[in-house]
Amino acid sequence: MVTIxxxxxxxxxxxxxxxxxxxKKANQTRSKQGKAPISTDPDRPVVFKGRSILLAAxxxxxxxxxxxxxxxxxxxxxxxxxxxxxLVVGVxxxxxxxxxxxxxxxxxxxxxxARELVLGAENIKEIVHAPGQIIIELTGKSPRWVYNKTLxxxxxxxxxxxxxxxxxxxxxxxxxxxx
Length: 179
Description:
Blueprint: H1 13-32, E1 46-49, H2 53-68, H3 77-95, E2 100-103, E3 107-111, E4 116-120, E5 124-130, E6 133-138, E7 145-148, H4 149-152, H5 156-170, E8 173-176
Parallel strand pairs: 5-8
Antiparallel strand pairs: 1-2, 2-3, 3-4, 5-6, 6-7
Helix pairs in contact: 2-3
Keywords: Membrane, Transmembrane, Transmembrane helix
Transmembrane segments: 53-72, 78-96
Protein name: Methyltransferase
């Protein structure tokens, strides 16, 4: 016999999937309307997205350089395709390939050059919140992860609050240098 006190854990898997599916659909329509979601899962990962300004600017500058150094070439269409391709790649990198930090219960992950890099809580030495940036110091010889408001347009205040909860949960030192 299923009691009310069992709550969600007492539901059948089919019912859980149906509730999850309907909640997801309702949250999508509410987000399109600009409203808050009806329910939030505390174990759901939080994703902070930024912009890749430097790489996009590099490709756009190369495109402009090719455009301004254009010589009088008759019938050379590949030059125009190359120039336009650099411009398109720069715009795609700015709008589509955005850097992110995903915070789950025990892991942090980010976009690497060709894959997603996942970092467990046991591999983090400390998290530093400095003015305008978040620095995640790793154990060993691994390079640190730096998230900057100026270069990558991350919401540093929201990241700091979520990473502070992450550090408290996983017993990692959190240093706040903004005070």
